[in-house]
Design goal:
Number of strands: 8
Protein name: Flagellar biosynthesis protein FlhG
Structural class: alpha/beta
Helix content: 40-55%
Low-confidence stretches: 11-24
CATH superfamily: P-loop containing nucleotide triphosphate hydrolases
Strand content: 15-25%
Largest sheet: 8 strands, mixed
Keywords: ATP-binding, Cell projection, Cilium, Flagellum, Nucleotide-binding
Mean pLDDT: 85
Length: 293
Amino acid sequence: MMDQAQSLRRLVAGQNRKLADRGEGTARIITVCSGKGGVGKSNFTLNFALALKSMGKRVLLFDADIGMANLDVLMGVSAEYNLYHLLGGEAGIEQIIQTGPGRLPFIAGGSGMEELFSLSDSDLNYFTSQIATIADEMDYILFDTGAGLSKETMRFIISADDCIVVTTPEPTAITDAYALMKVVHTAQPSTAFQLVVNLASDTREAIAASDKIRLTARRFLELDIPYLGFISSDSHVVQAVKRQIPFSLAYPNSAAAMDIHRLTLRYLSSDCSSVSAESRGIKGFIGKWLRRI
């Protein structure tokens, strides 16, 4: 049976329509970021994408971590193509879409991410038009960005519909997560943050960590940040990383896998109507991106 990535290739092969001639470009764009490294951001993004797919959503995962792209390693997949091949004109978007575990379509990052942020306007327009080619075939496009707040990560965050910030109960992770939100909010007040606490020992610790960020943001930024949930500190996650298999597939009954499932259901049930039709989806993403905010 043809997998989703192969289906996408057939759907987009031979297409050369302009963005203005397409539909609404309904894919919702989500960036996942963190204030610092070592909080399990990429692992969360991968398993969150798989959870969305298991709930019937059409998902494309995009590794947008400059210099430290590792989603293919977490999946145990050797990517034949990555973003570099698209930007160099060596392959089209339909060719660089790879298939990961759980038949999850993904685009590997690698060195091409650096070139992405130094493109001419015409080349950047080509990149965004390629992404737009598949947007109508997706419900969600997830960008796993680099840790911390570089100018490149900032571009992804403020151009997306949602920004999920991953932290841990560690004090430095909490401080850095809030600092990221503060800088982004100052630059783009309409940014829609949502918070996830990873590696929590229990519900109480997770809520305490999230409250520190949310209460501070409410007090000093007048910003209400929704709390999506937490992922337990679970030895199965470490075992899955060593096996290079997503923990939600390797150990579907583990505490971490069940946490991801609950968290994903909460995300899907959240109200997304606050984002205007003109600014959401791939058209909104491309519009903001090309303005080089």
